[in-house]
Amino acid sequence: MNKKLNMVALAGLVLLAGCSGGSGDDKTAPNEVNLYTARHYDSDKALYERFTEQTGIKINRIEGKADELIARMKSEGANSPADVFITADAGALWRGEQAGLLQPIESETIKARIPENLREPKGNWFGFTRRARIVAYDPAKVKPEEVDDYAKLAEPRFKGKICVRSSDSIYNLSLVGALIEEWGKEKADAWVKGIVANMARPPEGGDRDQIRAVAAGVCEVAITNSYYYLRMASGEDAADKAMTDRLKLAFPSLGGKGAHVNISGGGVAKHAPHRENAIKLLEFFASADSQAHISANNSEFPASKDVPVVAPVDAYVDFKANPMNVAAFAARQPEAQSMMSAAGWR
Ligand code: FE
């Protein structure tokens, strides 16, 4: 019954959109896949074209912020045409899963390509590229051994010296979630309070703004996702490039096991009308070629170790990565949120 409704709704949608692209008899439009994506890089378009060339499956793309796409899928309910949901950050994928919008899949290809800790254990979602949440620092003021562990960032040494964005950033929620998972609530809570005490200014702007604030002398250390620094270092903007030439990137360790790692990833939508195509698209994203493409264009690290990378990512790709499962810290998000709010991390 539901399935039938889906097909009718989808056929209607396709007709309305005027993009059936094939025979009018083809009510289920089997050679399509509907991608709901929070990634909106121009460079991704080349990737989608390659998928269509390889498989003959056309990608219909709906773009939006992760929370907007989640709200949209919720309101569409069982009639949602969404096949695949793609976004940055395990925390956002977890939100989609919690809202009942994803379904587990079994794919030997994905299992073979993607390390276990980057996959949600039941198969609801997985990452195809990695980003570390780490620090950029001014080496004229800070020694590398002062930023080699997340715990040190909350010490009095850095009073008034830390720049970091607000607590509604999912990147920060995921980081604090990882600290809770590794250390337990008490130590994580003390860390959050220590960071609030060490802030050079109330949180403002994005990660790049924190890096620029270090360069401007507002603070000594910025908490940032690795790709923001690496994109600045790749030289699109001369002033940003000059900053990263002077500042350094450090990969603090969590529990002695390496830096906190997050992902860009995706999963199959709960009511996917083109489930097989959805799995094919996700397998395509997991391929070495796709990982290399995304890494090269957004300076993320591939999920798989065997994927070649280009400068400036190549200089950092062998960093020590904490092997914590992405679902473990993602699920700590509500605890992280209330801990940060209570500490006054605005
Ligand atoms: Fe980002």
Give an overview of the whole structure:
Helix content is 42%, strand content 15%. It has helices at 2-17, 44-55, 66-76, 90-98, 108-113, 170-183, 185-198, 207-215, 226-233, 238-246, 275-286, 288-298, 326-330, 333-342; strands at residues 32-37, 58-63, 84-88, 102-103, 126-137, 162-163, 221-225, 248-250, 261-269, 301-302. It is globular. Fe (iii) ion (FE) is lined by residues 88, 225. The site of fe (iii) ion has 2 residues, from loops.
Task: Give the tally of structural domains.
Answer: 2
User: Residue ranges: pLDDT <50 for 5 or more in a row?
Assistant: 1-27
The pLDDT mean sits at 92
CATH-assigned fold name of the largest domain:
D-Maltodextrin-Binding Protein, domain 2
Compact summary:
The chain is of the alpha/beta class and 346 residues long.
List the helices and strands and how they pair.
Blueprint: H1 2-17, E1 32-37, H2 44-55, E2 58-63, H3 66-76, E3 84-88, H4 90-98, E4 102-103, H5 108-113, E5 126-137, E6 162-163, H6 170-183, H7 185-198, H8 207-215, E7 221-225, H9 226-233, H10 238-246, E8 248-250, E9 261-269, H11 275-286, H12 288-298, E10 301-302, H13 326-330, H14 333-342
Parallel strand pairs: 1-2, 1-3, 6-7
Antiparallel strand pairs: 3-9, 4-9, 5-7, 5-8, 5-9, 5-10
Helix pairs in contact: 6-7, 6-14, 9-10
Bound molecules: fe (iii) ion.
The site of fe (iii) ion has 2 residues, from loops.
